[in-house]
Amino acid sequence: MATQHTIALAGNPNTGKSTIFNALTGSRQHVGNWPGKTVEKKEGTWLHNGTPYTIVDLPGTYSLTAYSMESARQCAVIARDFVINEQPDLVLVVVDAANLERNLYLVVQILEMGVQVVVALNMSDIAQTRGLNIDVPRLSQALGAPVVPTVASKGTGLDKLKAVLADSIPVAASA
Q1: What pLDDT does residue 2 have?
Q2: Which one of 88, 100, 127, 174 has the minimum C-beta count within 10 Å?
C-alpha cells in the first residue's frame, strides 16, 4: 500500500488557494473547524499515479506572525502551528503573480521554517496583462523552491503543478 503524504496549502487571502484545492481534490473534500477556532479547515484527498495525498487548505494569511486584528492573528497561528506540529511533507504556497511582492513575505517565512516548498505563481494571466514579466527560473533559483505559473481558474498549469508536487515530496517521506 502506498504511503499517505500530506501537502499543506498556504497563501494570502484571495490568491486562488480554494480553486487549486478543488482542482486537486475534486469532490473528495470535507470541511470542519480547527479545534477551538472559528476558522474553517478544509481537507481533501488527491490521488496521483496511485499515490494518495492529503491536501490541507490552511486559512489565508499574510504572515505567520500577524500582530494585527484578532482574526488575522488566528489565521497566522493556525497556519504556523499546522506546519510546525503536523510536519506536512510539503507546503504548496499559492501566490498572486500580480501582487508578487506582498505575497513573497509569506513564502519567505515558510521557507525559513525549513520545510519543502513549491510555489504556485497563480493569476499569471493577470500579471501579464498588467505588463509584469516574471522570470520564473530566476525566482525559483532565488527562493530555492520550484515555482510553477498557473491560472487555476482556467485550469492552466495545473498538470505541471501536480507533477512538480509529486516530484517534490522528499525521498525520506516515501520510505
Answers
A1: 53
A2: 174
Q: Is 12 exposed, middle or buried (0-12, 13-18, 19+ CB in 10 A)?
A: buried
Low-confidence ranges of the chain (pLDDT < 50): 1, 28, 36-38, 172-175
pTM for this entry: 0.89
Domain assignment present for residue 10? The answer is yes
Whole-angstrom Cα distance, residue 111 to residue 92? 11
d(C-alpha 10, C-alpha 88), whole Å: 12
18: CATH = 3.40.50.300
Does 24 fall in a domain?
yes
The answer to whether 9 and 57 are in contact (CB under 8 A) is yes
pLDDT of residue 49: 87
Secondary structure (DSSP) of 43-76: EEEEEETTEEEEEEEPPP-S-SS--SSHHHHHHH
107 is a domain residue: yes
Query: Residue 17's domain spans which residues?
Result: 5-168
Instruction: Go through the chain and tell me how many residues it has.
Output: 175
Domain assignment present for 173: no
- The Cα 67–Cα 32 span in angstroms is 26
Q: Are 80 and 115 in contact (CB under 8 A)?
A: no
What is the number of domains present in the chain?
Answer: 1
Which amino acid does the sequence have at 126? I
Q: Are 50 and 2 in contact (CB under 8 A)?
A: yes
